[in-house]
Write a structure and sequence with these properties.
By secondary structure, the chain is an alpha/beta fold. It folds into 3 domains: 105 residues, no CATH class; 219 residues, Aminoglycoside phosphotransferase (APH), C-terminal lobe (Aminoglycoside 3'-phosphotransferase, Chain: A, domain 2); 181 residues, P-loop containing nucleotide triphosphate hydrolases (Rossmann fold), CATH 3.40.50. The chain is built from 20 helices and 15 strands. A 6-stranded antiparallel beta sheet has the order 1-2-3-6-4-5. The chain has a 5-stranded parallel beta sheet with strand order 12-13-11-14-15, with helices on both faces. A two-stranded antiparallel ribbon has the order 7-10. Helix 6 runs antiparallel to helix 7 and helix 15 crosses helix 16. The radius of gyration is 25 Å and the shape is globular. The two termini are 27 Å apart.
Length: 520
């Protein structure tokens, strides 16, 4: 990771007036953020993306001030001041005296565990939290500034300018983060929607629904521990902030879908439209969710190409971009629908590692027959239960019961709007057909990944697995080399379309392949 000298210097704890015990750096495509135990200092990158220009120090100072002013509307106690970064006696000092070589926004640091995204990750978010956020946001929108100038940003022409810019700035990413078909499909949907609903957009402007909004409301920007604080609004470009109030709330609605909580996005949407008393706004929700997902895909794509971003973060940004563009495509077609992603393969071919990794990246619910089977038998998933092929808890009738429970749990999640990964051998064709039929019944997409590996790779994996046995938090698979050989004899081919993943490649390579084949 190639960081500018100033940023490297600010990693020194002696650069800060409070002399913190540690300083941690995070990056976005437009900012460096320095986290100390008590504060966050945000420096704007000297970049020009067309929609923002931070190349001059004077511009960065101005927009630091705007960031303070605008964010105090929804997070009044968080934003403290604009401070100088100075060079003195060979040291770089934050909040120093003298001529500024850079400026930073100083904020009170909020605990990571107070963030909505953290609560989503832990599964602790209750419906009433989304109702509170919806109420706070609706109240903000009712009092947010509007005037004739701001209303102009709600015209079909103004909205079309923003969407056209998105497509122009992402055309170079076709084949990398978005497929040509998806790009053209979303572009066509957007242009057609603007033409078909021109009178609705004009009415929205005339009725006062175009306001000085937040512009970047997603789960990373919401603290829920001590009241509702929504921070980090768009300060750098008024046309991204002056928008329909539905365009503003649609960002969080989309982000909840991204986090595989469509059940919560429905609660949020319903609560918001009740609180805002906005009947017509419902007609625009998918259009603006598509727009927000596309913007997020664009931004993550930018990050994946930045030289100062680590290779690990670049890979993560690319996957996030691919998946956000996939979401945009859903909104542009039939609307959001969950997915049943079936990952099959012989024991030792890496299917569970792949399933866990996919689930971690895009928050899918991971259901595994290894775990369900032992739960049904009253055994800890961390307990080994070796048995000959087809006997004990691996006898046919118990396996039938296990697959029935797998589909039952998967179906319940799909019906709530949550996508699932089914991780199992799926050695019989009829198990696959039953899963496909269940996905169709509940209106979910259905995709199959099949993991393969040569015998040598499988044998090595079993040896490595033995070393992991007994380690805390490592669910045990009971299969070994002998079981694998017997599985090969009875493993049925499927005629269903599927993506083949060769586990001879690295896990990260295969994740990239899977994302592109399934979501690209």
């Amino acid at each position: 990771m190639d960081l500018p000298w100033l940023i490297k210097a600010l990693l020194d704890t002696e650069s800060y007036p409070e002399r913190p015990a540690e300083v941690k750096l995070r990056q976005t495509h437009i900012s460096y953020l320095f986290f100390t135990p008590a504060f966050v200092y945000k420096i704007k990158k000297p970049v020009n993306f067309g929609f923002l220009d931070f190349t001059a120090l004077e511009q960065r100072l101005f927009f630091c001030g705007e960031e303070i002013r605008l964010n105090r509307r929804l997070a009044p106690s968080i934003y403290l001041d604009v401070v100088k970064v100075v060079s003195k006696d060979g040291r770089v000092l934050m909040e120093g005296e003298g001529e500024a070589i850079e400026y930073a926004v100083k904020m009170k640091r909020l605990p990571d565990e107070s963030m909505l995204e953290s609560a989503l990750k832990k599964g602790t978010v209750r419906e009433n939290i989304l109702e509170r956020i919806a109420g706070a946001l609706a109240s903000f929108h009712k009092t947010a500034e509007t005037n004739e100038y701001i209303k102009g940003f709600g015209s079909p022409e103004a909205i079309g300018k923003n969407t056209a810019e998105n497509f122009s700035q992402t055309s170079g990413y076709i084949g990398n983060t978005i497929s040509k078909d998806r790009f053209e499909g979303i572009k066509r949907y957007t242009e057609d929607f603007l033409k078909a609903h021109g009178s609705l957009f004009q009415k929205r402007a005339a009725d006062g629904f175009i306001r000085d909004c937040h512009g970047d409301i997603h789960s990373e920007h919401i603290s829920i521990a001590d009241g509702i604080n929504i921070f980090d609004c768009i300060e750098f470009n008024e046309r991204f902030r002056f928008s329909d109030i539905v365009a503003d709330m649609a960002f969080l609605s989309m982000d909840l879908d991204y986090h595989n909580r469509h059940d919560l996005s429905r609660v949020f949407d319903e609560a918001y439209f009740r609180a805002s008393n906005d009947g017509d706004g419902v007609r625009l929700i998918d259009f603006y969710r598509c727009y927000r997902a596309y913007v997020r895909g664009k931004v993550e794509g930018f990050k994946s190409a930045e030289a100062e971003v680590s290779e690990e973060d670049k890979r993560a940004a690319r996957l996030n971009a691919v998946y956000h563009f996939y979401l945009a495509g859903l909104y542009a077609s039939s609307g959001f629908k969950p997915m049943m992603l079936l990952i099959r393969g012989l024991s030792g071919t890496g299917k569970s590692a792949l399933a866990r990794r996919v689930s971690d990246i895009i928050w899918l619910n991971h259901l595994s027959t290894d775990i369900i089977r032992k739960e049904l038998a009253g055994i800890s998933p961390f307990e080994r239960r070796r048995a000959p092929f087809g006997e004990d808890i691996y006898r046919e009738e118990f396996t039938e019961r296990t697959y029935k429970e797998l589909l039952k749990r998967g179906s319940a999640l799909l019906q709530s709007g949550r996508s699932v990964v089914l991780d199992a051998t799926f050695s019989k064709e009829r198990y696959i057909k039953e899963a496909k039929a269940e996905a169709k019944r509940v209106g979910a997409d259905f995709k199959i990944i099949e993991c393969i590996a040569d015998d040598g790779a499988v044998r090595r994996r079993f040896l490595e697995r033995e070393k992991e046995c007994g380690k805390e938090g490592f669910p045990l698979s009971d299969a070994g080399w002998e079981i694998y050989l017997r599985q090969k004899e009875t493993f049925e081919r499927t005629g269903e379309p599927r993506v083949i993943i060769d586990s001879g490649k690295s896990l990260e390579e295969n994740i990239a392949i899977l994302f592109w084949k399934i979501f690209g």
